[in-house]
């Protein structure tokens, strides 16, 4: 049987902070950066598709909510994380046994998606949202599995004093991968962007096709996976720590035991509830900007400006998260993120007015929009990176894949359920009326919309659910901040033994 009790760390821990030193780990850091970059590409493409759909069809928030399920595998990966920790070929390596086939499958599915993507985006003058959601769910399922593998491998690949570099590699690698999957294809596909800035004569289309871009990444995944399989050695960490080789059943028992720890239960409540404070702006800001007249190229350009900081930020964060309290930094960022969200929602409201202006007023508006958007993204990145650092600090390398995945999964679940719910709720809170007869509402059914259209009118929004929801979320966030202040300080001060369990095989 398996006996599980609370104990002090099974590996060497320090009560005083240890400064990270990349000497001896530079090659490992590079490998982790590459693997996390590959992980970010499907996530980036999952961000690009809603922007492309909204730009082409002005899709409803209900359809956008449906597609948001495509990223849910990152919030469900805890269900199969113990399998990844328990089943492996020891000769090949605990992590490589899974990494190699998973990344090969990613390459194959990129080819399959590339073959059908144009058909799904233009399915008889409408988008095939069900097919897109299904295939991106599979891509993100594979990427989430790769995340389990790499998170666990990072804890054993790096020296213990350099564990804080794991969150740096995760943050920087994913940020660069998201850039490659989100911003870069939108700009490369944009006809208006290239005709306006780079071409002397206007010609149709961008410089690549979306189909070709998927084929390109299919090749990249297969090539890099082959190189890792051949050249990257994985040490037998089990024998070095005299660790036990757990069966699947015992790994799941261990997982449930970790989940029952008082510290984990309280931290899970925090991670599941905090994202409701920001979900309206996080989920719908870009879609509302497009509805207000901002082009997808301009949105991609705003994100492009933030990419250098987003990639370099983890390197700077690492210099103090190894010696400061990461949860304190996480908590102190919340008020700024709430403030930036309210300001951005206000900017969206006045966007139609400013876009018809000319000269300095229009320039001032765009500069202010870019500034506030990047400040909001900065607050998001700081919260993500400090949280990842805390996960790495309290995770046990012997069960790193499961322990680390438990925390990231809870965080991701709190993120996606709030975003999906926010998109559905915006549709529910939005009310429209017929332009030629305000007494006729067209918010509840397609029949009412058809009646309005037949009478020569159009459905116009008179109550926008986005702004109602933003106010509700902000008030909730302020209340949350004061309720959980002492709780977070208490969790940060806990000794690492209160986050671990002991494994004894009888």
From TrEMBL:
A cellular component annotation (GO) from this entry: membrane
Transmembrane segments: 29-57, 69-89, 98-117, 129-154, 175-194, 214-231, 299-318, 338-356, 466-484
Subcellular location: Membrane
Sorted UniProt keywords: Membrane, Transmembrane, Transmembrane helix
A GO MF label: acetyl-CoA transmembrane transporter activity
Topology term for the membrane: Multi-pass membrane protein
Chief location category: membrane
Top-level taxon of the source organism: Eukaryota
One protein family per Pfam: Acatn
InterPro entries associated with the record: AcetylCoA_trans_1-like, AmpG_permease/AT-1, MFS_trans_sf
GO biological process, one term: acetyl-CoA transmembrane transport
PANTHER family linked: ACETYL-COENZYME A TRANSPORTER 1 (PTHR12778:SF9), SOLUTE CARRIER FAMILY 33 ACETYL-COA TRANSPORTER -RELATED (PTHR12778)
Protein name (Swiss-Prot/TrEMBL): Acetyl-coenzyme A transporter 1
Organism, scientific name: Macrosiphum euphorbiae
């Amino acid at each position: 049987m398996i006996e599980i009790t609370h104990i002090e760390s099974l590996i060497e821990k320090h009560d005083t902070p240890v400064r990270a030193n990349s000497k001896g780990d530079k090659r490992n850091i590079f490998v982790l950066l590459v693997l996390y970059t590959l992980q970010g590409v499907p996530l980036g493409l999952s961000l690009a598709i809603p922007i492309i759909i909204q730009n082409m069809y002005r899709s409803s928030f209900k359809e956008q909510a449906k597609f948001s399920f495509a990223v849910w595998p990152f919030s469900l990966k805890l269900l199969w994380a113990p399998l990844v920790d328990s089943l492996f070929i020891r000769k090949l390596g605990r992590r490589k046994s899974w990494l190699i086939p998973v990344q090969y499958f990613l390459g194959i599915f990129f080819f399959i998606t590339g073959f059908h993507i144009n058909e799904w985006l233009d399915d008889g003058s409408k988008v095939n949202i069900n097919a897109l959601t299904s295939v991106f769910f599979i891509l993100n399922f594979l990427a989430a599995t790769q995340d389990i593998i790499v998170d666990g491998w990072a804890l054993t690949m790096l020296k213990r004093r350099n564990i804080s570099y794991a969150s740096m590699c995760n943050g920087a690698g994913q940020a660069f991968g998201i850039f490659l999957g989100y911003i870069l294809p939108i700009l490369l596909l944009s006809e208006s962007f290239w005709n306006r800035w780079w071409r002397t004569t206007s010609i149709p289309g961008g410089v690549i096709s979306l189909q070709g871009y998927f084929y390109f990444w299919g090749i990249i995944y297969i090539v890099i996976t082959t190189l890792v399989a051949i050249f990257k050695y994985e040490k037998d960490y089990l024998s070095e720590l005299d660790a036990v080789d757990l069966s699947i059943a015992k790994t799941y028992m261990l997982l449930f035991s970790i989940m029952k720890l008082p510290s984990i239960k309280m931290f899970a409540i925090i991670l599941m509830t905090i994202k409701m404070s920001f979900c309206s702006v996080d989920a719908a800001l870009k879609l509302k900007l497009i509805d207000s007249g901002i082009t997808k190229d301009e949105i991609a350009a705003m994100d492009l400006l933030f990419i250098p900081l987003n990639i370099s930020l983890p390197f700077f964060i690492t210099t103090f998260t190894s010696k400061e309290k990461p949860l304190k930094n996480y908590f102190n960022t919340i008020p700024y993120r709430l403030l930036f969200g309210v300001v951005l929602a206000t900017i969206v409201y006045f966007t139609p007015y400013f876009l018809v202006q000319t000269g300095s007023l229009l320039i001032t508006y765009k500069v202010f929009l870019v500034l506030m958007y990047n400040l909001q993204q900065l607050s998001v990145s700081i919260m993500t990176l400090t949280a990842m650092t805390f996960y790495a600090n309290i995770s046990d390398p012997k069960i790193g894949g499961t322990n680390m995945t438990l925390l990231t999964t809870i965080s991701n679940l709190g993120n996606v359920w709030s975003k999906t719910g926010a998109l559905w709720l915006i549709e529910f809170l939005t009310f429209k009326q017929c332009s030629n007869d305000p007494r006729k509402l067209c918010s509840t059914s397609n029949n009412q919309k058809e009646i309005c259209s037949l009478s020569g009118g159009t459905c116009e929004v008179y109550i926008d659910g986005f702004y109602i929801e933003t106010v509700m979320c902000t008030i909730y966030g302020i209340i949350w901040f004061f309720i959980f202040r002492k709780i977070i300080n208490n969790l940060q001060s806990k000794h690492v033994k209160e986050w671990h369990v002991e494994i004894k095989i009888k």
